[in-house]
């Protein structure tokens, strides 16, 4: 069977994008919540 | 500080996992290098099982004690659980094309995994729709408990029904037939994914705690 490296890199690339995207989203949310303006306001849990 | 250390340990484990998957593990004799998708696909689904088991624990804990910490655990586990299930489905589909000749088939394993994914997407949507914290946590806990029933269905689907998907080669009743270097590479990636999940869980729980503090 041919090696199909394109499929391999697509799978790993997609996973990397999804995981990094989620990690960045968490980091951004934590940063926003740490701001004094947000601390004073109301934040709804997801 | 501990979360940061866990984060760096996760990065090192993921690098080791990639090294094992692409460097150390041999080229598989039948499928060729496309089999290397297994080092992503299998750890992703095992991590999803772990995440949804924690959603179950958090849900039961909340219904028994009504303590917000259990609900935060369930929420913090559900999000990465959905992410890892999505990765499982996507990587499986990409692996399926060159090996089975199709991106998708309504095979028992694939269908039950898609149902698992949709149940927990529904769980997260439900949480977003209810404002009152106790009502939200109770409703989510019921879905979290019922949803966990799908985990054994996904895992044993390849035994219970005739499926295109191969039977379990790990976590099965028989000794694993996998060659030692392939099994070792799989184990390293499994550990790396478990660490990654632990890091994401800790981070998400910290955020949920902050959100509760602000809301209260």
Please, could you describe this protein's structure?
The complex is a heterodimer of chains A (46) and B (216). Chain A is mainly α and 46 residues long. Chain A contains two helices and no strands. Chain A is rod-shaped and about 60 Å long. Chain B has 216 residues and is mainly alpha-helical. Chain B has one domain (35-166, 178-211). Helices cover 78% and strands 0% of the residues of chain B. Chain B is built from seven helices and no strands. The longest helix of chain B has 36 residues, at 180-215. Chain B starts with a helix and ends with a helix. The A-B interface holds A 1-5, 7-8, 10-12, 14-15, 18-19, 22-23, 26-27, 29-30, 33-34, 38-39, 41-46 and B 27, 30-34, 36-37, 40-41, 44, 75, 79-80, 83, 86-87, 90-91, 94-95, 97-99, 124, 127-128, 131, 133, 136, 196, 200, 203-204, 206-208, 210-212, 214-215.
Layout of SSEs?
The complex is a heterodimer of chains A (46) and B (216).
Chain A: H1 5-34, H2 36-40
Chain B: H1 2-24, H2 38-65, H3 68-100, H4 108-129, H5 133-148, H6 150-160, H7 180-215
Helix pairs in contact in B: 1-7, 2-3, 2-5, 2-7, 3-4, 3-7, 4-5, 4-6
Number of helices of chain A: 2
Most extensive chain interface and residues per partner: A-B, 30 and 42 residues
Distance between the termini of chain B: 26 Å
Which range best describes the helical content of chain A: under 10%, 10-25%, 25-40%, 40-55%, 55-70% or over 70%? over 70%
| Global morphology of chain B | globular
What is the domain total for the residues of chain B? 1
Q: Which stretches of chain A of 5+ consecutive residues score pLDDT under 50?
A: none
Which whole number gives the mean pLDDT of chain A?
84
Low-confidence stretches of chain B: none
Q: Which range best describes the helical content of chain B: under 10%, 10-25%, 25-40%, 40-55%, 55-70% or over 70%?
A: over 70%
Question: Biggest sheet of chain B, in brief?
Answer: none
């Amino acid at each position: 069977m041919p090696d199909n490296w394109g499929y391999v890199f697509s799978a790993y690339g997609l996973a990397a994008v999804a995981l990094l995207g989620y990690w960045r989203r968490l980091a951004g949310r934590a940063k926003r919540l740490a701001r004094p303006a947000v601390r004073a306001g109301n934040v709804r849990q997801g | 500080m501990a979360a940061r250390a866990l984060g760096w340990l996760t990065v090192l484990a993921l690098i080791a996992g990639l090294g094992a998957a692409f460097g150390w593990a041999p080229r598989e004799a039948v499928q060729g290098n496309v089999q290397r998708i297994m080092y992503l696909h299998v750890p992703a689904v095992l991590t999803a099982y772990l995440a949804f088991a924690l959603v179950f624990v958090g849900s039961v804990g909340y219904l028994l004690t009504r303590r917000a910490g259990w609900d935060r655990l369930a929420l913090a586990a559900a999000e990465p659980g959905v992410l890892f299930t999505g990765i499982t489905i996507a990587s499986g589909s990409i692996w399926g094309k060159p090996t089975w000749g199709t991106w998708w088939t309504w095979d028992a394993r694939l269908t039950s995994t898609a149902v698992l994914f949709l149940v927990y997407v529904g769980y997260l949507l439900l949480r977003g729709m209810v404002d009152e914290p106790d009502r939200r946590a109770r409703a989510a806990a019921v879905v979290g408990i019922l949803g966990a029933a799908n985990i054994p269905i996904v895992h044993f689907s390849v035994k219970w029904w005739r499926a295109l998907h191969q039977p379990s080669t790990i976590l099965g009743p028989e000794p694993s037939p996998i060659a030692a270097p392939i099994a070792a590479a799989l184990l390293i990636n499994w550990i790396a994914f478990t660490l990654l999940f632990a890091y994401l869980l800790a981070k998400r729980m910290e955020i949920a705690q902050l959100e509760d503090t602000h809301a209260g």
